[in-house]
Amino acid sequence: MIATKAGSDFYAQPIRRRYDREHLRRALERSLERLRTDHVDLFQLHDPPVSAILDEETIGALLELKQQGLARHIGASVHTLEEARAVVQAGVYETLQIAYSVAYQWVPNRVLARAAEAGLGVIAREPLAQGLLSGRYDRHYRFPEGDWRASIGQELRDYLDELCAAMRRYFHQRRGLDRPLAAIALQLPLAHPAVSTVIVSCKTPAQVDRNAEVLELEPLDAQALAWLRE
């Protein structure tokens, strides 16, 4: 399945968000050129505000691209609860992409059931909180220049570090589960019945293999999942 997104005009200076018909078509056509294909399975709006999600021109442009066979399905990738609810309520989008991790559950908990009832596919992203739930980086780790994670505030770094420590105590020490933190964190969104797929970033072939191996692990029991959800 090939999916792509559009919504930021990287050819403009400064870069600005655009969801009009002209930009969406141009963005998709250029993606198809780079991907060397004549269609994508899923074309999504990238970080659209509620006004764009419900805009008649935006919706019309997406449906037009779908009718022409350039995109088989259309969806939206959002952040806030209001945006997610707008995607569900619009009645035209087929997928909802949203962040969902042990550290970020407030929005998903309030929209996933509605999305499933409406028949939307749900794409969970950032299940490892940009790698900070993998246990690899503590609160003092210095990311290299050019890595946007270097700008993450210390308060959030402290919270994620404490969360990793709590997961180690519960799963490794108390439960005796011999499993990496990343594998445990991935199993939370994978276990949700409304989630269709999970996007997890991979930078090396070894990471691809390790992430794929999570699918072969024995599922976490109800008590473990309840702990993660708390």
Topology:
Layout: E1 3-6, E2 8-9, E3 16-17, H1 21-35, E4 40-46, H2 50-53, H3 56-67, E5 71-77, H4 81-90, E6 95-99, H5 106-117, E7 121-125, H6 154-174, H7 181-191, E8 195-198, H8 205-213, H9 222-229
Parallel strand pairs: 1-4, 4-5, 5-6, 6-7, 7-8
Antiparallel strand pairs: 2-3
Task: Provide structural commentary.
The structure is a single chain. Helix 1 runs parallel beside helix 3. This protein has helices at residues 21-35, 50-53, 56-67, 81-90, 106-117, 154-174, 181-191, 205-213, 222-229; strands at residues 3-6, 8-9, 16-17, 40-46, 71-77, 95-99, 121-125, 195-198. The chain is an alpha/beta fold. The model has no long low-confidence stretch (mean pLDDT 95). It is 44% helix and 16% strand. The chain has a single domain (3-138, 180-229), classed as TIM Barrel (Alpha-Beta Barrel), CATH 3.20.20.100. It has a six-stranded parallel sheet, covered by helices on one side. A two-stranded antiparallel sheet has the order 2-3.
Short description:
The protein is α/β, with parallel strands linked by helices and 230 residues long. It has helices at 21-35, 50-53, 56-67, 81-90, 106-117, 154-174, 181-191, 205-213, 222-229, and strands at residues 3-6, 8-9, 16-17, 40-46, 71-77, 95-99, 121-125, 195-198. It has a single domain (3-138, 180-229), classed as TIM Barrel (Alpha-Beta Barrel).
